[in-house]
Amino acid sequence: MGYGIEGLNVYTGLAQIPVPELFAGRGLEHERLANLAMTHRSIGLPFEDPVTNAVNAAKPLVDALDPADREAVEVLITSTESGLDLSKSVASYVHEYLGLSRNCRVFEAKQACFRGDRRAQLATGYLASGASPGAKALVVATDVALVDARAGYAEPATGHGAAAVLLSDRPTVLELDLGAFGLYSYETLDSARPTPEFDIADVDRSLFAYLDCLTNSFADYRTRVEGADFLGTFDRLAMHTPFSGLVKAAHRKLMREAGASPAQAEEDFERRVRPSLAYPAQVGNLCSGSVYLALASLLATDPVDAALRIGLYSYGSGCSAEFFSGVAGPASAEAVRAMDIGGHLAGRRRLAFDEYTALLPENLRTLVPVENRTVDVDRYARYLPGDRTLLVHTRTKDYHRMYEWR
Question: What is the rounded distance in angstroms from the CA atom of residue 176 to the CA atom of residue 168?
Fold first, then answer.
C-alpha cells in the first residue's frame, strides 16, 4: 500500500503587482530583474492573514471529501512563520472554519520555509505506521509577507499565500518513496522575523546556505537510496523557490558536481525543472508552501502522460533541508489541474505601484497582536471574486480574531 499526497491546492491571495513595476517604483537596478526570473508578485490584502490563507487553500480539498473521509482527517498541522499568538496555534482557527472532526490532533510547527515539508513527512510516517488505519492528515503551510522598501531586492521576490496538502493511503497526487530522503541542518542567521512587523535577511548567507544544504541533503539521500543518481534517477525536479533564478543556479551546481557540461545542464533544466517554475514566477516565495507551489506548477503545466519519479528539495532558513522523492502520473496532473490554480493566478487584481504602497501600512499590522480592531472589508470589496466564497478577517475582540465568509 502506498502513502502520500491525495490532494494538493494552493491559494495565493487576491492581488498582484508586476515585478517590473515594483522594480521601477523602488528604483531597483533593472539588470537584476533577469536573475530574479519573476513576472508578478502576490500581494496580501488587509483582510487576509495566515488563517484565511490556510482555510481558502484547504477548503476545496475538504469540500471534495465525502462525510466519512472528512471524519477520517484526524491530524491537522499548520506550518507558519506568521504566527498570531505565542501560545495559541493558527491550526485551531483553521480547524474550526474547515469544520473538521473534533476527534483530531491540531497543532502548529515552525522552522522557516522548511516546516511544511517536514510536517508532511512526519504525518505520512504516522499514517504508514498503521496506528490508525484509514486515517488522513491535512498539512497547511501558510504565511503572510511582511516586506516593504526596507527589504531591498527581497521585496519583489516575496510571495503570499498557502499550500494545502491532504495525505492518506490514496496518494493520487504523489506517492512518496518512504525511506528515501536526505537531511542536512545547522544553525545560521540567514533570515529571521524578530518582530511581527519586520523581516530581516542576510541575502548572501541565505543563498550560500541554500546551495550548501542542497548538495549535502542530496548526498545524504544517496546514502539511503542505493544507486541514486542526480542525472538519471529523477524524471522531474521541484525545489523550494525563493526566486526562480536561485533554483537555476542550484540545478546547475548539482549538474556540475555530477559531471555534466554547461550545455547538458541547460537542456536538463528546461526539461526537468522549468515546468516547476511557472507558478512561482507569478507568485514569489511562498515560504513554507514553496516546494508544493513548485510541485503544483510542474503537474499542472507539464504534459504528464506516464509515471514520473520527482525529486523534491525543501529548504528553510536557520537552517534545515531535506531532499526526498515520490512518483506521480497522469491522474496526479488531472487532480491538480482540477483545482484551477492557474485560473486563480490569472484572476488576481493587478495593483499599480501607488495602490501597492498605499496597502503596506495596513498590511504590516496583520500579525500585530491587539486587543480590539476592526478591518474594513467593504473598503476592499472590489478585490473579492464573484464566483466563490472566501474566508476574510473582519475584526479582533478581546484579542480573539473573528472571521466571516464573503
Answer: 11
Q: Give the H or E element holding residue 314.
A: strand 308-316
C-alpha–C-alpha distance, residues 177 and 10, integer Å: 23
Distance of CA 59 to the CA centre of its chain: 16
The residue type found at 278 is A
Amino acid at 282: Q
Q: Tell the residue number behind the cell numbers 526566486, with chain if given.
A: 243
In order of start, what are the domains of the chain with their CATH numbers?
A: 4-405 (3.40.47.10)
Q: Is 136 exposed, middle or buried (0-12, 13-18, 19+ CB in 10 A)?
A: buried
pLDDT tens, position by position, 255-308:
999 999 999 999 999 999 999 999 999 999 998 899 999 999 999 999 999 999
Residue with the three cell numbers 499550500: 163
Q: Are strands 105-109 and 73-79 parallel, antiparallel or unpaired?
A: parallel
In angstroms, the Cα distances linking 81 to 87, 106, 233 are 14, 17, 33
Query: Is residue 245 classed exposed, middle or buried when 0-12, 13-18 and 19+ CB atoms within 10 A define those classes?
Result: buried
CA distance 82 to 290: 15
CA-based nearest residue to 335, from 12, 73, 6:
6
Q: Catalytic residue positions?
A: 81, 113, 240
Q: How far apart are CA 180 and CA 307, in angstroms?
A: 18
Q: Please report the beta strands in 144-223, taking only residues with DSSP state E, as ranges in sequence order.
A: 161-168, 174-185, 191-195, 198-201
Q: How far is CA 302 from CA 11, 295, 329, in A?
A: 20, 11, 11
With 0-12 CB in 10 A as exposed, 13-18 as middle and 19+ as buried, what is 106? buried
**Residue 114, phi then psi, degrees to nearest 5:** -85, -20
Which positions ≥6 away from 259 have C-beta within 8 Å?
A: none
| pLDDT tens figures, 21-69 | 999 999 999 999 998 999 999 999 999 999 999 999 999 999 999 999 9
The C-alpha angle with vertex 282 and arms to 54 and 142, in degrees rounded to 5, equals 15
Would the pTM of this model clear 0.90, i.e. be above it?
Answer: yes
What SS3 state is found at 65? coil
- State the residue for C-alpha cell 510542474: 298
